[in-house]
Write a structure and sequence with these properties.
By secondary structure, this protein is α+β, with helices and mostly antiparallel strands. The chain contains 15 helices and 11 strands. The strands form 3 sheets. Strands 2-1-11-10-9-8 form a 6-stranded antiparallel sheet, with helices on both faces. Strands 3-7-4 form a 3-stranded antiparallel sheet. It starts with a helix and ends with a helix.
Length: about 475
Protein backbone atom coordinates (compact mmCIF):
# COMPACT_ATOMS: atom_id res chain seq x y z
CA UNK A 1 0.00 0.00 0.00
CA UNK A 2 2.78 2.42 0.95
CA UNK A 3 4.71 1.56 -2.22
CA UNK A 4 1.69 2.25 -4.43
CA UNK A 5 0.94 5.50 -2.64
CA UNK A 6 4.51 6.72 -3.00
CA UNK A 7 4.64 5.94 -6.69
CA UNK A 8 1.30 7.65 -7.24
CA UNK A 9 2.48 10.67 -5.24
CA UNK A 10 5.57 11.13 -7.41
CA UNK A 11 3.43 11.01 -10.57
CA UNK A 12 0.49 13.03 -9.29
CA UNK A 13 2.65 15.92 -8.13
CA UNK A 14 3.88 16.58 -11.67
CA UNK A 15 2.54 19.91 -12.93
CA UNK A 16 3.04 22.01 -16.03
CA UNK A 17 6.23 24.05 -15.45
CA UNK A 18 7.03 27.54 -16.54
CA UNK A 19 8.49 27.23 -20.05
CA UNK A 20 11.47 29.50 -19.30
CA UNK A 21 13.67 27.02 -17.42
CA UNK A 22 13.21 24.04 -19.79
CA UNK A 23 13.76 26.24 -22.83
CA UNK A 24 16.86 27.83 -21.33
CA UNK A 25 18.23 24.45 -20.27
CA UNK A 26 17.61 22.94 -23.72
CA UNK A 27 19.48 25.82 -25.36
CA UNK A 28 22.34 25.66 -22.85
CA UNK A 29 22.82 21.88 -23.15
CA UNK A 30 22.86 22.02 -26.93
CA UNK A 31 25.34 24.92 -26.90
CA UNK A 32 27.51 22.96 -24.47
CA UNK A 33 27.37 19.86 -26.65
CA UNK A 34 28.26 21.84 -29.76
CA UNK A 35 31.24 23.43 -28.00
CA UNK A 36 32.63 20.25 -26.42
CA UNK A 37 31.50 17.39 -28.63
CA UNK A 38 29.65 15.78 -25.72
CA UNK A 39 27.86 12.77 -27.29
CA UNK A 40 24.93 12.21 -24.92
CA UNK A 41 23.40 13.67 -21.78
CA UNK A 42 20.27 13.21 -19.67
CA UNK A 43 18.90 15.94 -17.39
CA UNK A 44 16.23 15.96 -14.68
CA UNK A 45 15.05 19.14 -12.93
CA UNK A 46 12.40 19.22 -10.23
CA UNK A 47 10.86 21.78 -7.89
CA UNK A 48 8.90 20.63 -4.89
CA UNK A 49 6.62 17.92 -6.17
CA UNK A 50 6.86 18.93 -9.83
CA UNK A 51 9.01 17.67 -12.66
CA UNK A 52 10.22 20.87 -14.29
CA UNK A 53 12.20 19.11 -17.00
CA UNK A 54 13.29 15.56 -17.85
CA UNK A 55 15.01 15.10 -21.18
CA UNK A 56 17.76 13.42 -23.13
CA UNK A 57 20.10 14.92 -25.70
CA UNK A 58 22.38 13.39 -28.30
CA UNK A 59 23.12 9.70 -28.64
CA UNK A 60 24.35 6.73 -26.65
CA UNK A 61 27.63 4.95 -27.37
CA UNK A 62 25.67 2.46 -29.46
CA UNK A 63 24.00 5.17 -31.55
CA UNK A 64 20.48 5.33 -30.10
CA UNK A 65 18.95 8.69 -29.14
CA UNK A 66 19.23 9.56 -25.44
CA UNK A 67 15.75 10.12 -24.01
CA UNK A 68 14.28 10.68 -20.56
CA UNK A 69 13.91 6.89 -20.32
CA UNK A 70 17.43 5.90 -21.38
CA UNK A 71 19.25 4.01 -18.57
CA UNK A 72 22.64 5.58 -17.88
CA UNK A 73 25.30 5.06 -15.22
CA UNK A 74 25.09 7.35 -12.18
CA UNK A 75 28.46 6.11 -10.83
CA UNK A 76 29.13 7.28 -7.25
CA UNK A 77 25.73 8.95 -7.02
CA UNK A 78 24.90 5.32 -6.16
CA UNK A 79 26.30 5.91 -2.68
CA UNK A 80 23.19 7.91 -1.77
CA UNK A 81 21.06 4.86 -2.62
CA UNK A 82 23.25 2.50 -0.61
CA UNK A 83 23.18 4.84 2.38
CA UNK A 84 19.38 4.97 2.18
CA UNK A 85 19.17 1.17 2.15
CA UNK A 86 21.33 0.98 5.28
CA UNK A 87 19.31 3.71 7.01
CA UNK A 88 16.10 1.82 6.29
CA UNK A 89 17.51 -1.22 8.07
CA UNK A 90 18.51 1.02 10.97
CA UNK A 91 14.94 2.40 11.16
CA UNK A 92 13.64 -1.15 11.43
CA UNK A 93 16.05 -1.91 14.28
CA UNK A 94 18.01 -4.45 12.25
CA UNK A 95 21.20 -2.36 12.25
CA UNK A 96 22.62 0.19 14.69
CA UNK A 97 24.81 2.80 13.02
CA UNK A 98 27.29 3.02 15.87
CA UNK A 99 27.77 -0.70 16.34
CA UNK A 100 30.68 -2.59 14.73
CA UNK A 101 30.08 -3.79 11.19
CA UNK A 102 31.30 -7.24 12.17
CA UNK A 103 28.30 -7.62 14.51
CA UNK A 104 26.06 -7.84 11.44
CA UNK A 105 28.59 -9.02 8.88
CA UNK A 106 30.91 -11.61 10.49
CA UNK A 107 32.62 -12.26 7.14
CA UNK A 108 34.07 -8.73 7.24
CA UNK A 109 37.61 -9.38 8.44
CA UNK A 110 40.89 -7.62 7.71
CA UNK A 111 44.53 -8.24 8.52
CA UNK A 112 44.47 -5.15 10.75
CA UNK A 113 42.90 -5.86 14.18
CA UNK A 114 41.58 -2.28 14.32
CA UNK A 115 39.01 -3.26 11.67
CA UNK A 116 36.94 -4.95 14.39
CA UNK A 117 36.06 -1.45 15.66
CA UNK A 118 34.75 -0.09 12.34
CA UNK A 119 31.12 0.93 12.74
CA UNK A 120 28.33 1.05 10.20
CA UNK A 121 28.26 4.86 10.37
CA UNK A 122 31.99 5.03 9.64
CA UNK A 123 31.44 3.11 6.39
CA UNK A 124 28.81 5.62 5.29
CA UNK A 125 30.72 8.78 6.24
CA UNK A 126 34.01 7.38 4.91
CA UNK A 127 35.88 7.49 8.23
CA UNK A 128 36.45 3.74 8.61
CA UNK A 129 40.22 4.02 8.23
CA UNK A 130 40.12 2.15 4.93
CA UNK A 131 41.77 4.06 2.10
CA UNK A 132 43.26 3.59 -1.38
CA UNK A 133 46.71 4.13 0.12
CA UNK A 134 46.35 1.00 2.24
CA UNK A 135 44.18 -1.12 -0.06
CA UNK A 136 44.59 -0.70 -3.83
CA UNK A 137 41.02 -1.53 -4.70
CA UNK A 138 41.20 -0.59 -8.40
CA UNK A 139 44.59 -1.99 -9.40
CA UNK A 140 44.12 -5.31 -7.60
CA UNK A 141 42.21 -8.17 -9.29
CA UNK A 142 38.53 -7.25 -9.33
CA UNK A 143 35.83 -9.25 -7.55
CA UNK A 144 32.66 -10.53 -9.22
CA UNK A 145 30.21 -10.08 -6.36
CA UNK A 146 29.72 -8.07 -3.17
CA UNK A 147 30.67 -11.16 -1.20
CA UNK A 148 33.93 -11.29 -3.16
CA UNK A 149 34.51 -7.58 -2.58
CA UNK A 150 34.40 -8.17 1.18
CA UNK A 151 36.39 -11.41 1.03
CA UNK A 152 39.38 -9.75 -0.65
CA UNK A 153 39.79 -7.46 2.38
CA UNK A 154 41.10 -10.33 4.50
CA UNK A 155 44.71 -9.45 3.75
CA UNK A 156 44.19 -5.68 3.76
CA UNK A 157 45.24 -3.15 6.36
CA UNK A 158 43.95 0.24 7.49
CA UNK A 159 45.45 3.64 6.78
CA UNK A 160 44.20 5.14 10.08
CA UNK A 161 42.32 4.34 13.27
CA UNK A 162 38.58 3.99 12.62
CA UNK A 163 36.70 7.24 13.16
CA UNK A 164 39.72 9.55 13.04
CA UNK A 165 40.27 10.47 9.37
CA UNK A 166 38.04 11.00 6.34
CA UNK A 167 39.16 9.12 3.23
CA UNK A 168 36.91 8.67 0.20
CA UNK A 169 37.16 4.96 -0.58
CA UNK A 170 34.73 2.93 -2.67
CA UNK A 171 35.23 -0.21 -0.60
CA UNK A 172 33.37 1.40 2.31
CA UNK A 173 30.17 1.31 0.27
CA UNK A 174 30.79 -2.15 -1.12
CA UNK A 175 30.98 -3.45 2.45
CA UNK A 176 27.84 -1.47 3.30
CA UNK A 177 25.97 -3.01 0.35
CA UNK A 178 27.07 -6.49 1.36
CA UNK A 179 25.80 -5.75 4.87
CA UNK A 180 22.42 -4.88 3.34
CA UNK A 181 22.43 -8.21 1.46
CA UNK A 182 23.20 -10.25 4.57
CA UNK A 183 20.92 -8.42 7.00
CA UNK A 184 18.14 -7.95 4.46
CA UNK A 185 18.32 -11.56 3.31
CA UNK A 186 18.30 -10.90 -0.45
CA UNK A 187 20.69 -9.75 -3.21
CA UNK A 188 21.45 -6.04 -3.07
CA UNK A 189 19.79 -5.37 -6.42
CA UNK A 190 16.59 -7.05 -5.25
CA UNK A 191 16.71 -5.12 -1.98
CA UNK A 192 16.95 -1.77 -3.79
CA UNK A 193 14.15 -2.79 -6.16
CA UNK A 194 11.79 -3.68 -3.33
CA UNK A 195 12.66 -0.90 -0.88
CA UNK A 196 13.70 2.07 -3.02
CA UNK A 197 13.04 1.81 -6.76
CA UNK A 198 9.56 0.26 -6.69
CA UNK A 199 8.18 2.50 -3.91
CA UNK A 200 9.36 5.59 -5.81
CA UNK A 201 8.14 4.40 -9.19
CA UNK A 202 11.70 4.19 -10.57
CA UNK A 203 10.79 1.45 -13.04
CA UNK A 204 13.87 1.79 -15.25
CA UNK A 205 16.48 1.73 -12.47
CA UNK A 206 18.64 -1.08 -11.14
CA UNK A 207 22.13 -1.75 -9.79
CA UNK A 208 24.84 -3.93 -11.34
CA UNK A 209 28.07 -5.57 -10.23
CA UNK A 210 30.75 -5.10 -12.89
CA UNK A 211 31.57 -3.32 -16.15
CA UNK A 212 30.30 -6.36 -18.06
CA UNK A 213 26.79 -5.73 -16.73
CA UNK A 214 26.51 -2.26 -18.27
CA UNK A 215 23.93 -2.14 -21.08
CA UNK A 216 24.82 -0.40 -24.33
CA UNK A 217 22.95 2.74 -23.28
CA UNK A 218 25.16 3.07 -20.19
CA UNK A 219 28.48 2.71 -21.98
CA UNK A 220 30.48 5.81 -22.69
CA UNK A 221 33.28 7.60 -24.46
CA UNK A 222 36.76 9.04 -24.17
CA UNK A 223 37.77 12.34 -25.69
CA UNK A 224 40.79 11.86 -27.97
CA UNK A 225 42.05 14.77 -30.09
CA UNK A 226 38.76 16.58 -29.64
CA UNK A 227 36.57 13.65 -30.67
CA UNK A 228 34.45 11.38 -28.50
CA UNK A 229 35.44 7.76 -29.05
CA UNK A 230 33.07 5.03 -27.82
CA UNK A 231 34.96 2.52 -25.68
CA UNK A 232 33.96 -0.15 -23.15
CA UNK A 233 34.41 0.67 -19.48
CA UNK A 234 37.66 -0.85 -18.17
CA UNK A 235 37.37 -3.85 -15.89
CA UNK A 236 36.02 -2.87 -12.50
CA UNK A 237 33.58 -3.71 -9.71
CA UNK A 238 31.08 -1.08 -8.61
CA UNK A 239 28.01 -2.45 -6.87
CA UNK A 240 27.17 -0.48 -3.74
CA UNK A 241 29.70 2.22 -4.54
CA UNK A 242 28.87 3.02 -8.17
CA UNK A 243 26.61 0.42 -9.76
CA UNK A 244 23.22 2.13 -10.07
CA UNK A 245 21.75 2.69 -13.54
CA UNK A 246 18.91 5.16 -13.87
CA UNK A 247 17.10 7.51 -16.24
CA UNK A 248 16.23 11.19 -16.23
CA UNK A 249 12.60 10.32 -15.51
CA UNK A 250 13.50 8.05 -12.61
CA UNK A 251 16.01 10.49 -11.17
CA UNK A 252 13.26 13.13 -11.20
CA UNK A 253 11.18 10.86 -8.96
CA UNK A 254 14.21 10.36 -6.70
CA UNK A 255 14.82 14.11 -6.41
CA UNK A 256 11.15 14.80 -5.64
CA UNK A 257 11.17 12.17 -2.90
CA UNK A 258 14.42 13.50 -1.44
CA UNK A 259 13.16 17.09 -1.32
CA UNK A 260 9.91 15.86 0.27
CA UNK A 261 11.90 14.14 3.04
CA UNK A 262 11.47 10.56 1.75
CA UNK A 263 7.94 10.08 3.15
CA UNK A 264 7.17 6.43 3.77
CA UNK A 265 10.82 5.45 3.32
CA UNK A 266 12.54 7.19 6.25
CA UNK A 267 11.57 9.26 9.26
CA UNK A 268 12.44 12.99 9.29
CA UNK A 269 15.01 12.29 12.00
CA UNK A 270 16.74 9.65 9.88
CA UNK A 271 16.77 11.99 6.87
CA UNK A 272 18.43 14.70 8.99
CA UNK A 273 20.98 12.15 10.19
CA UNK A 274 21.81 11.17 6.61
CA UNK A 275 22.52 14.83 5.79
CA UNK A 276 24.60 15.60 8.88
CA UNK A 277 28.36 15.62 8.14
CA UNK A 278 30.96 13.97 10.32
CA UNK A 279 33.36 15.82 12.60
CA UNK A 280 36.23 14.61 10.42
CA UNK A 281 34.84 16.24 7.26
CA UNK A 282 32.15 18.92 7.40
CA UNK A 283 31.50 18.46 3.68
CA UNK A 284 30.53 14.77 3.71
CA UNK A 285 27.53 13.17 5.41
CA UNK A 286 26.06 9.69 4.82
CA UNK A 287 26.22 9.26 1.06
CA UNK A 288 25.76 13.00 0.47
CA UNK A 289 28.07 15.99 0.23
CA UNK A 290 27.21 19.32 1.85
CA UNK A 291 28.11 22.47 -0.09
CA UNK A 292 26.95 25.69 -1.70
CA UNK A 293 26.33 26.99 -5.21
CA UNK A 294 28.49 29.71 -6.75
CA UNK A 295 26.01 32.22 -5.33
CA UNK A 296 26.31 30.72 -1.85
CA UNK A 297 23.02 28.79 -1.81
CA UNK A 298 23.23 25.74 0.49
CA UNK A 299 22.99 22.45 -1.40
CA UNK A 300 23.14 18.72 -0.76
CA UNK A 301 24.79 16.87 -3.61
CA UNK A 302 26.95 13.99 -4.80
CA UNK A 303 28.93 13.45 -7.98
CA UNK A 304 30.07 10.27 -9.61
CA UNK A 305 32.63 9.14 -12.18
CA UNK A 306 33.25 5.99 -14.12
CA UNK A 307 36.08 6.00 -16.64
CA UNK A 308 33.73 6.51 -19.60
CA UNK A 309 30.80 8.35 -18.01
CA UNK A 310 29.92 10.66 -15.14
CA UNK A 311 26.93 12.00 -13.22
CA UNK A 312 25.91 14.55 -10.60
CA UNK A 313 22.87 15.14 -8.40
CA UNK A 314 21.98 18.20 -6.33
CA UNK A 315 19.23 19.30 -3.95
CA UNK A 316 18.48 22.92 -3.04
CA UNK A 317 16.44 22.60 0.17
CA UNK A 318 15.69 26.32 0.33
CA UNK A 319 13.92 26.53 -3.02
CA UNK A 320 12.92 22.87 -3.29
CA UNK A 321 14.80 22.39 -6.56
CA UNK A 322 16.53 19.19 -7.52
CA UNK A 323 18.85 18.55 -10.47
CA UNK A 324 20.42 15.38 -11.87
CA UNK A 325 22.78 15.16 -14.84
CA UNK A 326 24.20 12.04 -16.49
CA UNK A 327 26.69 12.16 -19.37
CA UNK A 328 28.44 9.47 -21.38
CA UNK A 329 31.96 10.91 -21.29
CA UNK A 330 34.84 10.21 -18.95
CA UNK A 331 35.78 11.87 -15.68
CA UNK A 332 38.76 13.83 -17.00
CA UNK A 333 36.52 16.56 -18.44
CA UNK A 334 33.98 17.05 -15.60
CA UNK A 335 31.13 17.41 -18.09
CA UNK A 336 28.44 16.36 -15.60
CA UNK A 337 29.65 18.79 -12.93
CA UNK A 338 30.04 21.65 -15.41
CA UNK A 339 26.56 21.11 -16.84
CA UNK A 340 25.16 20.93 -13.33
CA UNK A 341 26.80 24.27 -12.50
CA UNK A 342 25.30 25.85 -15.60
CA UNK A 343 21.81 24.50 -14.94
CA UNK A 344 21.94 25.73 -11.34
CA UNK A 345 22.94 29.16 -12.65
CA UNK A 346 19.80 29.16 -14.84
CA UNK A 347 17.63 28.15 -11.88
CA UNK A 348 19.13 30.97 -9.81
CA UNK A 349 18.44 33.49 -12.54
CA UNK A 350 21.97 33.75 -13.88
CA UNK A 351 23.63 33.07 -17.20
CA UNK A 352 25.55 29.81 -17.58
CA UNK A 353 29.03 29.85 -19.04
CA UNK A 354 29.41 27.81 -22.21
CA UNK A 355 32.98 26.51 -22.65
CA UNK A 356 34.86 27.75 -25.67
CA UNK A 357 36.05 24.23 -26.42
CA UNK A 358 37.87 21.30 -24.88
CA UNK A 359 40.58 22.52 -22.51
CA UNK A 360 42.95 19.60 -23.11
CA UNK A 361 42.87 19.42 -26.90
CA UNK A 362 46.21 21.27 -27.22
CA UNK A 363 47.74 18.78 -24.79
CA UNK A 364 46.36 15.93 -26.91
CA UNK A 365 47.80 17.45 -30.08
CA UNK A 366 51.18 17.91 -28.38
CA UNK A 367 51.37 14.27 -27.30
CA UNK A 368 50.15 13.09 -30.70
CA UNK A 369 53.01 15.00 -32.34
CA UNK A 370 55.46 13.70 -29.74
CA UNK A 371 54.30 10.17 -30.53
CA UNK A 372 55.01 10.63 -34.24
CA UNK A 373 58.42 12.19 -33.50
CA UNK A 374 59.24 9.39 -31.04
CA UNK A 375 58.34 6.69 -33.57
CA UNK A 376 60.46 8.46 -36.18
CA UNK A 377 63.44 8.71 -33.83
CA UNK A 378 63.02 5.04 -32.92
CA UNK A 379 63.13 4.01 -36.58
CA UNK A 380 66.17 6.24 -37.18
CA UNK A 381 67.98 4.88 -34.12
CA UNK A 382 67.32 1.30 -35.14
CA UNK A 383 68.38 1.92 -38.74
CA UNK A 384 71.71 3.35 -37.60
CA UNK A 385 72.41 0.50 -35.19
CA UNK A 386 75.35 -0.95 -37.18
CA UNK A 387 77.01 2.48 -37.50
CA UNK A 388 76.50 3.05 -33.75
CA UNK A 389 78.07 -0.32 -32.92
CA UNK A 390 81.05 0.32 -35.21
CA UNK A 391 81.94 3.49 -33.32
CA UNK A 392 82.06 1.74 -29.95
CA UNK A 393 85.40 0.34 -28.78
CA UNK A 394 83.70 -1.60 -25.98
CA UNK A 395 80.22 -2.66 -25.15
CA UNK A 396 79.52 0.61 -23.25
CA UNK A 397 76.05 -0.60 -22.34
CA UNK A 398 75.49 2.40 -20.11
CA UNK A 399 74.97 4.46 -23.28
CA UNK A 400 71.81 2.48 -23.92
CA UNK A 401 70.34 3.23 -20.48
CA UNK A 402 68.40 6.39 -21.52
CA UNK A 403 66.44 4.35 -24.05
CA UNK A 404 65.15 2.15 -21.23
CA UNK A 405 63.73 5.04 -19.18
CA UNK A 406 60.28 4.94 -20.88
CA UNK A 407 60.08 1.20 -20.19
CA UNK A 408 60.81 1.86 -16.53
CA UNK A 409 58.16 4.57 -16.46
CA UNK A 410 55.63 2.21 -18.02
CA UNK A 411 56.37 -0.33 -15.31
CA UNK A 412 56.11 2.16 -12.46
CA UNK A 413 53.38 4.51 -13.70
CA UNK A 414 50.74 3.13 -11.32
CA UNK A 415 52.67 3.81 -8.07
CA UNK A 416 53.89 7.14 -9.48
CA UNK A 417 50.30 8.17 -10.18
CA UNK A 418 49.30 7.01 -6.72
CA UNK A 419 51.84 9.39 -5.18
CA UNK A 420 50.84 12.30 -7.42
CA UNK A 421 47.14 11.66 -6.75
CA UNK A 422 47.68 11.64 -2.96
CA UNK A 423 47.05 7.94 -2.56
CA UNK A 424 44.13 7.48 -4.98
CA UNK A 425 44.47 4.19 -6.79
CA UNK A 426 44.08 3.35 -10.49
CA UNK A 427 45.00 0.35 -12.62
CA UNK A 428 47.36 0.71 -15.59
CA UNK A 429 44.56 0.46 -18.17
CA UNK A 430 42.51 2.98 -16.21
CA UNK A 431 45.35 5.47 -16.49
CA UNK A 432 45.19 4.95 -20.24
CA UNK A 433 41.54 6.05 -20.05
CA UNK A 434 42.39 9.06 -17.91
CA UNK A 435 45.33 10.24 -20.01
CA UNK A 436 44.97 8.52 -23.40
CA UNK A 437 47.35 10.53 -25.59
CA UNK A 438 50.03 10.66 -22.88
CA UNK A 439 49.83 6.90 -22.39
CA UNK A 440 49.96 6.28 -26.16
CA UNK A 441 53.12 8.38 -26.31
CA UNK A 442 54.60 6.56 -23.32
CA UNK A 443 53.95 3.13 -24.86
CA UNK A 444 55.36 4.34 -28.19
CA UNK A 445 58.46 5.66 -26.42
CA UNK A 446 58.90 2.40 -24.53
CA UNK A 447 58.52 0.34 -27.71
CA UNK A 448 60.89 2.60 -29.64
CA UNK A 449 63.47 2.51 -26.87
CA UNK A 450 63.29 -1.25 -26.58
CA UNK A 451 63.64 -1.62 -30.36
CA UNK A 452 66.70 0.62 -30.49
CA UNK A 453 68.37 -1.23 -27.60
CA UNK A 454 67.63 -4.63 -29.10
CA UNK A 455 68.84 -3.75 -32.61
CA UNK A 456 72.00 -2.04 -31.35
CA UNK A 457 72.90 -4.95 -29.08
CA UNK A 458 72.31 -7.32 -31.98
CA UNK A 459 74.50 -5.17 -34.23
CA UNK A 460 77.29 -4.93 -31.66
CA UNK A 461 77.20 -8.73 -31.16
CA UNK A 462 77.50 -9.40 -34.91
CA UNK A 463 80.43 -7.00 -35.24
CA UNK A 464 82.36 -8.66 -32.42
CA UNK A 465 81.69 -12.10 -33.78
CA UNK A 466 82.78 -10.96 -37.20
Amino acid sequence: MIKTALAALCLALVSTPSPSVPTSVDAYVEQYRAATGLPGVAVAITKGGSVVHAAGYGRTATGEPVTADTPMAVASVSKSFTALAVMQLAEKGKVALDQPVRRYLPEFTMADPRAAKITVRQLLNQTSGMADSAFHEKSLPQPETLQGAVARLRTAGLAADPGTVFSYHNTNYQVAARLVEVVGGRPFADHLDANVFEPLGMRHSTTVDTDRDLPGSARGHLYVLGRAVALPEPTGFGNGSGGVLSTAGDMARWLIAQNAGLPGLLSPQAVREMRTPSKQNDGYALGWEIGTTERGTPVIEHGGDLFTSSAHQLLMPGSGHGVAVMVNTNMAFSNAHDLMTGIVAIIEGGTPQVPSGQPLILTDVLFALLTLVTIGLGIRGAARARRWAARRTGWQLWRLAPYLVPIGLCATIVPIHRVLARGRDAAWVQLAYLYPTFMVWLVAAAAAGLAVVAVRLWGATRLRRG
